[in-house]
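ZP: hey, is the pyridoxal-5'-phosphate complex queued? I don't see it on the tracker
AM: it wasn't, my bad. submitting now with these inputs:
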Amino acid sequence: MSHFSYRDGVLCAENMPLTAIASQFGTPAYVYSRKALVENFSAYADMCKGRDALVCYAMKANSNLAILNLLAKHGAGFDLVSGGELLRVIAAGGDPKKCLFSGVGKSRDEMALALSHDILCFNVESIPELHRLNQVAGELGKTAPVSLRVNPNVDAKTHPYIATGLKANKFGVAFDDALATYRTASQLPHINVIGIDCHIGSQLLDDAPLLEALDKLIELIDTLAQQGIVLHHLDLGGGIGITYDDEKPVAVRDYLERVFARIDQWRSTRHDGAPIKIIFEPGRSVVGNAGVLLTKVEYIKPGAEKNFCIVDAAMNDLMRPAMYQAWMGVQEVRKRNDAAVTYDVVGPICESGDWLARDRQLAVVQDDLLAIASAGAYGMTMASNYNTRGRAVEVMVDGDRAHLIRKREEPGDLFALESIPA
Ligand SMILES: *Cc1c(COP(=O)(O)O)cnc(C)c1O
């Protein structure tokens, strides 16, 4: 069920009209539904109940402290990709011992920080990274828990920028090199090999490629066990997509059901009885459709070839259209009875790439409000200050209450760290 719906012709977040949010907090504003966040997370967490399984929310999708705190209260661990993200988890009251650290370029300082907080596991992506981690852990008198990110070379059939499991990608260890890499890792004194992970891409609508990847990981775990390297967890990464337009993604619950059926079947054929923890790293599907970007129409500019609807949000607020040519839904916050006109919805930034939506039928006039739908994931976290634009305010709606969860940045905030040489 969507928690963004029309009531008396006005688009609401739960019970709050977006018109009221715009008057109280201004625009552009990211508006999230608390209920939607909890429901989306629960789709994973409920299926994991009673099992040795953990949901590590991939926080690069949206890392606002209020959202992390909410998910942590519902039992979430976190998948992080920087030391900064670990500090966010701690600031939000999350548990570092439920954190995975992913990414191809971890620095020494980031490794040391994560080791000092005893994170659950480092998802290592290369041999040089293994050696560095071994050295940093040794210097600190620690042992680093490690999973290797294996590249199962399955085609996730998604946008090339968000497909990550093919041989040509920068991510992970090639499937054919995995055995040798595990052998190397198991001989390093300050490395404790505990798991295996993969992440084949984002915005996957079908779970067939994920199940194919699962089979490949299972095969590898069995081969490793024969060689005396016993793994304790299997992490399938993120990846179920969401509906932006008319996509029909597989239901999260159905995907997890198929994963657990496969796991149960596999474990029943093994007699060593060694338990294996299953980990998921969902990002987009937890926050994507739990948020909208609320924006105001500044000008209507008719043209010879195109009509432009110029709004106060821009590519710095929401990069996905400019970066991936992503299609985002646009909704009039207050329905008008006027005839719709075809517009490109664009921002004020001095780039032709600054558009949010193209060729949309809208009935709008100056000062009307629009909502860019399904903007909760990879929206605010990818925002920048290009054109010295402060980042948008963020608001979390809970029933008929709206909470400010991040203030709007003011221009002074943006140059506060700069200095002019004497
Ligand atoms: C981005 C990312 C995820 C989350 O992917 P979604 O498609 O947003 O669920 C999970 N794991 C890793 C390693 C990632 O880089």
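AM: back. The mean pLDDT is 95.
ZP: great, adding it to the tracker
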